[in-house]
Amino acid sequence: MKKIHVTELIIEKKRTAGLTWEKIAADIGMSEVFTTSACLGMNAFPRDKADLLVRNLGLPQEAALVLAEFPTKIFSQAVPTDPCVYRLYEIVAVYGDTIKELINEKFGNGIMSAIDFDMEIDRIPSPKGDRVELKMRGKYLAYNAW
Amino acid sequence: MKKIHVTELIIEKKRTAGLTWEKIAADIGMSEVFTTSACLGMNAFPRDKADLLVRNLGLPQEAALVLAEFPTKIFSQAVPTDPCVYRLYEIVAVYGDTIKELINEKFGNGIMSAIDFDMEIDRIPSPKGDRVELKMRGKYLAYNAW
Amino acid sequence: MKKIHVTELIIEKKRTAGLTWEKIAADIGMSEVFTTSACLGMNAFPRDKADLLVRNLGLPQEAALVLAEFPTKIFSQAVPTDPCVYRLYEIVAVYGDTIKELINEKFGNGIMSAIDFDMEIDRIPSPKGDRVELKMRGKYLAYNAW
Amino acid sequence: MKKIHVTELIIEKKRTAGLTWEKIAADIGMSEVFTTSACLGMNAFPRDKADLLVRNLGLPQEAALVLAEFPTKIFSQAVPTDPCVYRLYEIVAVYGDTIKELINEKFGNGIMSAIDFDMEIDRIPSPKGDRVELKMRGKYLAYNAW
Amino acid sequence: MKKIHVTELIIEKKRTAGLTWEKIAADIGMSEVFTTSACLGMNAFPRDKADLLVRNLGLPQEAALVLAEFPTKIFSQAVPTDPCVYRLYEIVAVYGDTIKELINEKFGNGIMSAIDFDMEIDRIPSPKGDRVELKMRGKYLAYNAW
Amino acid sequence: MKKIHVTELIIEKKRTAGLTWEKIAADIGMSEVFTTSACLGMNAFPRDKADLLVRNLGLPQEAALVLAEFPTKIFSQAVPTDPCVYRLYEIVAVYGDTIKELINEKFGNGIMSAIDFDMEIDRIPSPKGDRVELKMRGKYLAYNAW
Amino acid sequence: MKKIHVTELIIEKKRTAGLTWEKIAADIGMSEVFTTSACLGMNAFPRDKADLLVRNLGLPQEAALVLAEFPTKIFSQAVPTDPCVYRLYEIVAVYGDTIKELINEKFGNGIMSAIDFDMEIDRIPSPKGDRVELKMRGKYLAYNAW
Amino acid sequence: MKKIHVTELIIEKKRTAGLTWEKIAADIGMSEVFTTSACLGMNAFPRDKADLLVRNLGLPQEAALVLAEFPTKIFSQAVPTDPCVYRLYEIVAVYGDTIKELINEKFGNGIMSAIDFDMEIDRIPSPKGDRVELKMRGKYLAYNAW
Amino acid sequence: MKKIHVTELIIEKKRTAGLTWEKIAADIGMSEVFTTSACLGMNAFPRDKADLLVRNLGLPQEAALVLAEFPTKIFSQAVPTDPCVYRLYEIVAVYGDTIKELINEKFGNGIMSAIDFDMEIDRIPSPKGDRVELKMRGKYLAYNAW
Amino acid sequence: MKKIHVTELIIEKKRTAGLTWEKIAADIGMSEVFTTSACLGMNAFPRDKADLLVRNLGLPQEAALVLAEFPTKIFSQAVPTDPCVYRLYEIVAVYGDTIKELINEKFGNGIMSAIDFDMEIDRIPSPKGDRVELKMRGKYLAYNAW
Questions:
Q1: Ranges for the Cyanate lyase C-terminal domain (chains A, B, C, D, E, F, G, H, I, J) (predicted)?
Q2: Which chain B residue shows the shortest CA-CA distance from A37?
Q3: Residue A112 dihedral angles phi and psi, to the nearest 5°
Q4: CATH class of the domain comprising F83-142
Q5: pTM score, two decimals?
Q6: How would you write the pLDDT of chain F (146 residues) with one tens digit per residue?
Q7: Cα–Cα distance for residue pair I51/I42, rounded to 1 Å
C-alpha cells in the first residue's frame, strides 16, 4: 500500500459518504489545508492524527502507517496546466521579484521558508463578487555568512 | 525608452537616495506590492500615479508615459532559480491541488483570478523567529456552461 | 470510475449508435462545444444535464456523478502535434500579440477570460471552399491596481 | 532595415501621434487585425498598402519594401507567458480536441487552415460585464488520400 | 479496438504471410506511402478501401471501421531518434529556410500544404550506389490579407 | 567576416539589384537549392563557384573564402515555428515511420543519406491549384554488421 | 514477441548460464560490440547469425526472426544519466568541434558515417591503471554539391 | 581577454597563414586532438606549450596566460545539431549501453574516465572509401564501496 | 527479478521489522550511505555483502545476485522536485563555480571524482538547532594533456 | 555597476596581482568558500567585509555597495555542463534519495537548509591519490503540521 492508494480510498469514501474536507479536517482537529494536502499525499500526518483519520473514515489500519510516512514530493510538470493551479504559478512568476524585494526590505537577506510553513484559504464576501483569500506564512530564514 | 530603462532609473534613484519601496509607495498613495511590481515593469500605473511617482523621484517626464503603458509580461524560466522565488514555486507545486480542492469546495467549479487580484506582505513577529505573511486575494471566477 | 472511463463509454456508444455530437448536445439542450468538451472530460456538466445525458445514452448512473465533477485539466504536450490542433496553436502564436494590442485598445489593461467563456463552431459556405468559423467570447477582466 | 526596426518606428509614431490601430487600419482600408499583425512583423502587406501606410505615418520609403516582404515567423516560447496570450493558449489546449471532433463531424477528415485565414476582434456589450469576441475563419482543408 | 491494435494485427499478418507494403497497397489500389501510413495509424482509409484491406488480410470486420476513423496524430519526440527518421529531420532543419525562400520566389507568400499532400518513394539505380528518392507534392496555399 | 555577414551582403545585393535565387544560381551553373542553401550559410561552395558568385554580385574578395569554408550547421529550435518550415517538420513526423518501412522494404536495413544528398523544388501546375514539388535524393547507406 | 522480449530472454540466459558477451559473440563468429548491441535491440543480426545465436542459447525459434528484423532505435533521454554513458556524451560535447575540425582538415567537407560504422573495445594494461580503449571507424561521407 | 578571443585570433592567423592543426600541434610537440581542443577553449595548455604557441603564431603575450587557464566547459545544446557532431552523439546513444556492458565485463563495475583521457583521429585508406578512425583511451575508474 | 523489486522487498521488510538503515548497514559491516544507496538500486554490493544482507533480512537468494549486479543509474528529472533533494541541487547550482575555483586552486586543473567517491551524513548538535552535515570525499582527477 | 562587473574587476585584480582565494578570504577574515561565492556574485558580503575587501583589492568604493547587495541567483542550465560541476550534480542525482532517507531517519520529516548553510573544501592527502573533501552543514528544518 502506497500513499497514492490511500488517497484513492479517501477520495472514494469522501464521495460516497458526502463528506467535505472541512469536516474531515475538523474531525481530527487539524486545519483544512494541511489535512487536504496530507490526504493528497503531499504531507505526513502525525501518527495520532493518522490513526484518528483512519478510524473516522473506516479505512484499513495499514493506511495510518502510510499516512504518517514521509512523502517524496514529485511534481511532474514544470508548468502546471490546470487553470486553477496555473493562475497561482502565474502569480509567482509575475510577483516573484516583487516579493523578494519586499522580504529583503522588511527582513534582510533571506527567504520565506516553504518547510516551516502554514497556509489557510478563506472566502471573502464582496458585493462585486466574492474573493478567494490565500494566507501563507513561513518562517523567515536568513542567509548565513561564514 | 522602455519599461526596463525606467526600472533601472528607479532602482538607481532608490539606492542613491536611500529610499525604500515602502516610502515610494506611501508617497503616491498606493500599496507596496503594487508599486514595487509596477516599478519592476510587471504592472501599469494609473496615469496620475505615474506622474506623481516621476515627480517624486525626479525622473524624466517620458517615464510617466512608459510606466502607464500596458506591460507584456515575459518570464523566461519555467522553473525560477533564485531561492526566494523558487520556494514560492515549490509551494504552488506542493499545495496546488489542495488549493484547487478547497476553492471547489468553498465556491464551486472555478478559480481565483490572477487579474482581478491584490496581495500584501507583512512581517509577523514570533518568539520562534519572525514569519513572512503573504495575503493574496483574487476574485472568484466560475466556469461557464452554455 | 474516472472521467476517462466515462469518455470511453460515450465514444463507444456514439459510434455504435451512430450518434453525432450535434444530436447528443441538442438532446440535453446544451451547446455542441460545451457538450463535446464536457464529454471529453474538460468541463463539468451541471448535475441535471449529466443525469439527462446518462439517461439518453444508457450509461450507468455513476457516470452522471463523474460527469458533474470538477475536472483537473491536464494537457501533456506544450506544443500540440495533431495538425488540426497545431494550427490553432500556431494562430495563437502568430496573432497573440495582435490580439493583446487590440484588447488593450478596445477595453483597457486586461484580458479575455478563459473561464467565463463560451465558443461556437460553424460551417460557412463559400464558393472558393467552405470555411470553418470559430467564435470565442470571454468576459473582459481588467487588471487591478491597489 | 529589418521588420523589427519598422515595427519600432510604427510603435513610436503611434504613441507620439496618439494614433490607434483602428485608425491606422482604416486609413489604408484594411482590417484592424491584419494591419496590426503586419505592423508587428507577422504578416506581409500588399505592396500598395505598404506604400500607403508609410506615407500616412511619414516613415522612410525603405520601410514600405520591408513591410511587403515575406516574414519569417519565429515565436520563441513554447508556452506564452503574458497572461492575455496565455489564456488563448489555454483555450486551445482545453478545447483543441473538441474543435477537432466538431470539424471532423461538420466537414470530414481535415483541418481549418491557418494560412487562408482571417480574424476579427469585437467588443460585445453585456450588463454582466462586456465580452471580448474573437471570430476566426479559415478555409477547410481535406486530407488527401492517394 | 483502437488504431494501435489494428496496426499490430496488420504487422503480424504481414510478417506471418510474408507480405510487403507494396503488395498490400497494390491489392487495394492505393499508393504504397498512403497505405503504409494509414496502416500505421497516421491516416484514415476511405471506407471502401478499409473494407477491402480487412477482407484481403482476414482481419476482424471492426478493424475496417477503425481504419476509416480520423486519427489523432501524436508524435512524442520533438527530435526523432531513429537514424533513418532523424536524417529527414536534419534535412528539414538544414534546408528549411532554403525551401521557404524558393517557395516564396516561385509562388509568392505562402506555404506547401501538409494536408492536401501526397508523396512517393522510389529506388533510383546508380553506379555509385543506388539512391532513395522522395517526391513530395503539396498544394500551394497563399496567405490571406484582409 | 563570418558566414552570417556574407549572407547579409548577398540578401541586400539581391534585394537592391532585383535578383532571384534562380538567376544567381544559373549564373554560377549550380542548382537553385544548393546555391540558396550555401548563400544562407548551410553549405560550402566549391572554391571556383564561390569566386564566380563573388564576382557576379560584386562582393568583397574575402567573401569567397568564407563561402568556401565548411559551415557549422546550428539550428536553434527543436520544433521550427515558421509555418512554411513547420509543415515540413510535420510531414517528417507523420510520415517518418512510413518512409523507414518503405526504405527497409526496397533497400534493406539502412537509411537515406542526408550528406550525399540533393534536392530540387518545382512548381507543378494544376487546375485545382498549383502544387509545390520537393524531390529529395540521397544515397542509400546500409548498416554495417561486423 | 518484440525485440525487448528477446533481449530479456538473452540477459536471463546469459546470467543463469554464466555466459559472457565475449563468448556469445565468439560462438557466432561476430564481434563483441556488434553482438552485444544487436542483443540489446540496437542492431539487426544477419539471418544466419540470428539462427545460430538462437540455437546456441536455446531460445524459441521465433526469436531468430525478431533478432533479424530492422530495429527502430529510440533513445529516450537527450542527456544520458548513467555515469558510464554520460562520460561518452561529455566527450562528444567537449571534443565534438575538435573532431569536426580534424575530419575537415584530413578529408574535406564531410562527416564520419554512423551507419557504415564499426567499433571495438579493448583493455589496455598500464602501470598507472589500465585504460579502456574505444576504437571507432566509420566511412568518410563527403557533402554533395550540385 | 578571454578564451573566446584567443580562439578567434588563432583561427584568423591559421586562415591567413594557411596553417593546419597538424602543423600547429607539431610545432609545439603536442598531439593534434589536444592542441585543437585547447585552441578551441576546451582544454588548458601547460604553460610552456602556451608560451611556445603564442610565439609561433605571433599572438600577444597575454594570450599565453589565457591559454593556460582552466576552462569552464559550457555546451549549450543538449542535442548537437551539426551533422558531423550529431553522428557522434547518435553513436553514443545507440552504443552506450553496449559499451557499458563490455566495460563492466572486461573491468568490473566502473567507467572510462573522460578526464584522464586521450584521443586520436586517423585516416584509414580503404578501397571502398577511406574511413575515419577515432581512438579514445580513458583510465578505468572503479566504483568505490565503503 | 530486477533491482526495483529487491528494493521494494527491502523497504517492506524494513518497515514491518522496524529496522533502520543504520542497523541494516551495521549488520553487514558497511557504511550507512553506501548501504542505503545500494539498497535503493544506485550501487552494487560486493557479492559477500549481498549474501549477508539477504540472509539478515530473509530475502530470496536470487536477490543477492541482483544486489551485486552493476546498476544502470537512471534519474528521470533534470531538476529534482522533492524539497529535500532540491535543496542539494540548489547548493550545487549556487556553489558549483565556487567549488570549481577552489579545487583548481588547491589541486590544479581537474575534478573531484564521483566514482572513486564516498560520503557520510551526521547530526551535529547545536543550541540554535541541530545541523545536518554531509561529508563527501572523491579522488582528485587531473585532466590529461597529450 | 552590477555584481557581474565587480566580479570581473576582482578576477582581473586576482590574476594580475597573483592572488589566491585563500589569501583574499584570509585578509578579510572570512572563509574561502563564502568569500569566493560572494565574489562570484552568489552571496552578499556583510557591509564591513565588503569595505575591507574593496580596500584590500583597490577597487572603486561603489563596489562595496554592490558586494553587500542581495543577489538574484540565476543559474541558466538545468543540467550543468562543466565536468567539475556536473559531477556534483550527478552525486545529488545518485545519492539524493539516500540522503533524504538518512535525514529522515536521523532527524524526522524535514530537510537540510540551503540558506542557513555553510561549507568548506579541503585537500585530504592519500597515498592512492589525494582526495577532495566537501563538508556541507545546513540547519535541520522540520516540516510544519497545523
A1: 74-146
A2: B98
A3: -90, 125
A4: alpha beta
A5: 0.94
A6: 899 999 999 999 998 899 999 999 999 999 999 999 999 999 999 999 999 999 999 999 999 999 999 999 999 889 999 999 999 999 999 999 999 999 999 999 999 999 999 999 999 999 999 999 999 999 999 999 99
A7: 18
